[in-house]
Structures are given as C-alpha cells and as structure tokens.
Amino acid sequence: MSKVFVITGPSGVGKGTLIAELLRRVSGLELSISATTRQPRDGEIGGRDYHFLSAEEFDRRVKADDFLEFATYSGSRYGTLRSEVRDQLAADHSVVLEIEVQGARQVRAAMRESIQVFIAPPSPGILRERLRARGTDSAEAIDVRLEVAEQELAAQDEFAYRIVNDDLMRAAGELEEIVRTELGLPLHSEAE
Ligand code: 5GP
C-alpha cells in the first residue's frame, strides 16, 4: 500500500541528503516537489527543486485550497500542493515530503496515517557549521534559521520516529529501515 512519509527537522540537519540516499535505496518512492516564494538558489531549477511561485500566485493557490499544508519560514512561504501527493498515490507510489515542523503538524492533522520522522542534529552547534559550509545563506539568514531551529528541536518529541544524523550512512540506514518496515518490504534490497 502507498504511504506518505513526512521528513522534518531543522534547516542544515541534512534532510535533503538523507532523502536523496533513501530514494537511491528504496524504489517506488517519489519526492513531492514543494512550492515556495523564495528565490531560486544557484543551480536550482523550477519544477525539479521547487515550484517557484510569486507571492500573488502562492496566495491565489492558498485561496483555491490547493495546498495540503503551507507555512511561512524565514520570511518566505512554502507549501505542499495537494496534486503532488494525490497524483503519486493514485499511481501507487509512496510520497516523501521534506518540510519544516509547522507543515509536518498540518499533514499529521490532515492525514493521521502519514508517517512522521524527525531528523535531529548530534548537537545544536553543528547546524551553524553545516549552514555555513553549505554557503547558500547569508550570515543574517543563517541566524534566522538557527532561531527557528531551536523551536523545531523543542518539538521533536511530537514525532513518531526520531533519527540523529550523526553519520550520513548510519542515519540513512535507520531511515531506510523505518520506510521498509512501514511499507512491508524486506529490510535489505536484493542488490545487497
Ligand atoms: P530551503 O529554503 O532551505 O529550501 O527550505 C527551508 C525550510 O522549508 C526547510 O526546513 C524545508 O524542509 C522546508 N520546506 C520545504 N518545502 C516545504 C513545504 O512544502 N512545506 C513546508 N511546510 N516546509 C517546506
């Protein structure tokens, strides 16, 4: 049966890298492409990384009830389009949502059957290092993200699963096991 997996956690914790590894390891999973009003970063492509929308277009789609969830994060708006999830489930694919905590809560309320995973850093200090090393945000933007991260870390007990991203391959193994167990798949792919 197809399922919805919500992967959440603070910015800089490595959600994107972990999810890329998960999609490599488990077939039949599709990533939901979110909509956002933030500007594309260097190398980001509309329709692949995000649906980049103007504030007006985002607003119009909120009013049209097109979003399963949406939130304001660090001054920009982000949201999961219902169509992204609906189309994948209709095609018998499970869907992975990479979203922040407010959105994860909304999905939990709307889809109690969704599987919610919080990715935590091994220590709060490491987030600043990772955000700096990523080089995609200004010093001011990093400060805002770290303030939000504090609130997000305080919410981690709400989530059914929690993974500490201390080591990418180890954490990816844990995430893979959760997803395989929830989908009733054998715990290791045949390639291993
Ligand atoms: P970034 O600007 O670094 O791409 O994303 C900022 C934050 O927004 C990250 O925590 C990311 O997971 C979250 N995010 C991305 N897409 C969505 C979405 O569709 N909904 C919500 N609620 N958060 C999202």
Secondary structure: elements and pairs:
Elements: E1 4-8, H1 15-25, E2 29-31, E3 35-36, E4 51-52, H2 55-63, E5 67-73, E6 76-81, H3 82-90, E7 94-98, H4 101-110, E8 115-120, H5 125-134, H6 139-154, E9 161-164, H7 168-183
Helix pairs in contact: 1-7, 5-6
Produce a short descriptive summary.
By secondary structure, the chain is an alpha/beta fold. Helix content is 42%, strand content 21%. Helix 1 packs across helix 7 and helix 5 runs antiparallel to helix 6.
Can you offer a commentary on this structure?
The two termini are 24 Å apart. The longest helix has 16 residues. With 192 residues, the protein is of the alpha/beta class. It has seven helices and nine strands. Helices cover 42% and strands 21% of the residues. The site of guanosine-5'-monophosphate has 15 residues, from strand 5, strand 6 and helix 4.
